[in-house]
Amino acid sequence: MPVHLRRDLEKLKRLILAFGASVEENTQLAANALRTYDSELAQRVIDRDEEHDRTEVQIEEECLKILALHQPVAVDLRYVVTVLKVNADLERIADFSVNVAKRASSLSKSKPIALPKELLEMSNKAISMVKHTLDALVEQDIVRARAVCASDDEVDLLQRELYDIIVKNIHEHPDQVSEWMQVFSCVRYFERMGDLATNISEDVIYLVEGEVIRHKNMN
User: Fold this and answer.
1) CA 114, 117, 122 angle in degrees (round to 5)?
2) CATH 1.20.58.220 fits domain 3-209
3) Is this prediction's pTM over 0.85?
């Protein structure tokens, strides 16, 4: 491998891993803000949004520079393509974290409601999926990547259970419709985080094996 290509790939690796770590931290902070109705913590998450947007653009520009200058092939080409896709998914996960934080901030100003334990379980699972998919990327571990893909069904099941719980609470507490609709939004955001973590894991499998498994049965 040419020295300049190796140098640029190493820089790209550092950038995407640092971005992943920052996004993962934001998902945890957003979930904590929601659980505790902590508006200051929620604002910390919101304030990092512009930084994440800038990082996404920087990583995309690095990928395009490598493709234009070095015209990589084989595994190097797969790595750059994978980083391009993972980069976009990480930025979207960061956006969903901000959305959760905004709901948490709004709920902190309302009459408190008891969040369903299923929501806490769902947020934990979604955040765990984000963590493990990033570990799979770092280690290029397809076993862990496939485990993340399998976990998506658990998050989807909790989403369906929570929809029923939210509808029941809206009927029983019509004075809290606004609060429960914000909880409803958070359920959707965590479900999307799980979907995006699954996308990243599928990209890790593509990186390692050169096989596109999206839309295939993982069982």
Assistant:
1) 125
2) yes
3) yes
